[in-house]
Amino acid sequence: MEYLVVTSQYDNPPSTASDGETLLAGLRARFALHDEVVSIPGTDHSVVITRPSDTGALLDQAADDPEQNLPYWSELWPSGIALAAAIAQQPDLVRGLPVLELGTGLGITAIAALKAGADLIVTDYSPESLVLAAVNTRRNGGRSARAVQMNWRDPDQALLDEFPGGFPVVLAADVLYERRDIQPLLSLFNRIVAPGGLLWLAEPGRPPASIFLEGASRQGWTFSTTTCNGPWPDPKDQDVIARVHQMRRRAPITP
Questions:
Q1: 191-219 mean pLDDT
Q2: Single pTM value for the model
């Protein structure tokens, strides 16, 4: 099995490896993992996701991180599952296209994109996330995406230089946690989404998301929204309604 991890910004990033099980064994030596079956809403499909068993312990370990790179990647978020469902229902929107995912987490959305035939690059600030996303996509989709270790607040310049015109499709689920995320994300999406391209954004209705959408609309983005109410794997999320936005960046006006 091939797991390509292109790394940046970290002092001790994971090495490229040809054996995903070796990488997985390294994670098991640090914290407990288990497999969980996740149903994809609106489809008859389910995926098996390897994930940390105790996310609370990971949160405690990251409490003193000055960069606030908290282990959000280790959770099964409704937004990521809803985005996977949306891709499964409209695979033609990613098939055969270069696609970038911000914050791949455990790889649920990536699985759907790869099954749909996307030429996918996944990113996350956590090397652990990239290992588990590679394992999960290989198990459920038969192949893994190219992976870049990256914090979207400080995007990888080499990746941006590789796609100077932007990506035709960008995927992002649960990236809008706080108000301080709004302007950096607006600026980033204007850089990485090609003119006329699609940003597929999923979120659970936090206030910063509505402010973000208002700002994007003022900048000329157009969007349509659908909702998804699960089912979700975690009972505490039973009342969550995820919103999935298909956002189009304004294309330049040609004379």
A1: 96
A2: 0.88
